């Protein structure tokens, strides 16, 4: 698995370990021994690797001889992709071609019929599909489909709609909002600066989405499937729910509109069709939008109160734990 220390990587690695699987996961070079995210990765064989180094990536595949590969490593911020288009292409597209080549060679050696899951994105199909992020993801998808259609590799794209959790990076607007609500509630700040609040997305819980990934890769036939809830909310909805979860009133003058935070191109509405995944995989999202936002805010409040940045009991909403 690439990107094991990221949001999806943590949830997926823990799910695989819980079912008795061995997990080898790549982390960025320099992933510190004291990094708080290590608290989630007990029992995972961590391998420092820059996925842009194709030869090293292919060598790792040859050494491990995996039966399943989940490619989750990515520069995943659309906004950042406009600032660093070359890095985005090098990180999000080129490694997939190296993975495909390595898995085809592994299959030729015999004894292993490897399967590949590629974390694609709904951004590829939106009206903002000319973003560097979307273009790189589209190129990766093409490599996966070519491997499947031309070489018979079991390779699939999970077309992931927005999925969040308390592990979401602070640079993402969802976590920016939940962290700000927690800080305002505890008197640590007075306002939050945001861009376009009319953006509408299909937001789900990352801890559920990784189960869809596992089912997609275990399916009898390789299918590219959208993964989402089928329900849409605006960023304004998320903001209001986060403030309510923190015990605050309406956001009101605590929100500063900042034109500098607007993207060069943005898709106003994204919503998944959940029926293909339900029909093929028997999977539907269960965690509601309100439960997701409430959980993220609750964890951000705990982080501030305890000074503990990461803990295993931060991972799951109360209803799942119960």
From TrEMBL:
| GO BP annotation list | 'de novo' GDP-L-fucose biosynthetic process
| Lineage top rank: taxon | Bacteria
**GO molecular function (one):** GDP-mannose 4,6-dehydratase activity
Pfam families, A to Z: GDP_Man_Dehyd
Gene3D superfamilies named in the record: NAD(P)-binding Rossmann-like Domain, UDP-galactose 4-epimerase, domain 1
Which InterPro entries is this protein grouped with? GDP_Man_deHydtase, NAD(P)-bd_dom, NAD(P)-bd_dom_sf
Q: What EC number(s) is this enzyme filed under?
A: 4.2.1.47
What keywords tag this UniProt record?
Lyase
NAD(P)-binding domain segment(s): 2-296
The answer, when asked if DNA-binding is one of the entry's keywords, is: no
**Cofactor(s) needed:** NADP(+)
Family, per entry: Belongs to the NAD(P)-dependent epimerase/dehydratase family. GDP-mannose 4,6-dehydratase subfamily.
What name appears for this protein in its UniProt entry? Answer: GDP-mannose 4,6-dehydratase
Q: Which organism is it from?
A: Nocardioides simplex
């Amino acid at each position: 698995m690439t990107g094991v220390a990221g949001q999806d990587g943590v949830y997926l690695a823990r799910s695989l370990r819980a079912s008795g699987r061995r997990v080898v996961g790549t982390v960025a070079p320099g992933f510190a021994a004291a990094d708080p995210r290590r608290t989630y990765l007990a029992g995972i064989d961590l391998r420092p690797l820059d996925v842009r180094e194709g030869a090293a990536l292919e060598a790792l595949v040859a050494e491990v001889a995996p039966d399943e590969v989940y490619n989750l490593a990515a520069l995943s911020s659309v906004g950042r992709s406009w600032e660093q288009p070359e890095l985005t292409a090098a990180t999000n597209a080129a490694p997939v071609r190296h993975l495909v080549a390595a898995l085809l060679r592994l299959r030729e050696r015999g004894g292993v019929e490897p399967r590949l899951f590629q974390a694609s994105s709904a951004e590829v199909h939106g009206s903002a599909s000319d973003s560097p992020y979307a273009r790189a993801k589209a190129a990766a998808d093409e490599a996966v489909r070519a491997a499947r259609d031309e070489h018979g590799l079991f390779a699939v794209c999970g077309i992931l709609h927005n999925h969040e959790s308390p592990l979401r990076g602070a640079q993402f607007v969802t976590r920016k909002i939940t962290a700000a609500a927690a800080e305002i509630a505890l008197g640590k700040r007075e306002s939050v600066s945001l861009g376009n609040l009319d953006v509408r997305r299909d937001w789900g819980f990352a801890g559920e989405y990784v189960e869809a990934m596992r089912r997609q890769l275990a399916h009898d036939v390789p299918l590219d499937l959208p993964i989402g809830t089928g329900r849409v909310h605006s960023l304004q909805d998320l903001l209001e729910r986060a403030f309510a979860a923190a015990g605050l009133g309406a956001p009101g003058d605590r929100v500063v509109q900042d034109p500098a935070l607007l993207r060069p191109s943005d898709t106003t509405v994204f919503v998944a069709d959940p029926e293909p995944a339900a029909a093929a995989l028997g999977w539907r999202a269960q965690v509601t939008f309100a439960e997701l936002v409430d959980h993220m805010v609750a964890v951000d409040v705990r982080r501030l109160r305890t000074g503990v940045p990461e803990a295993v009991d931060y991972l799951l909403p109360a209803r799942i734990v119960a």
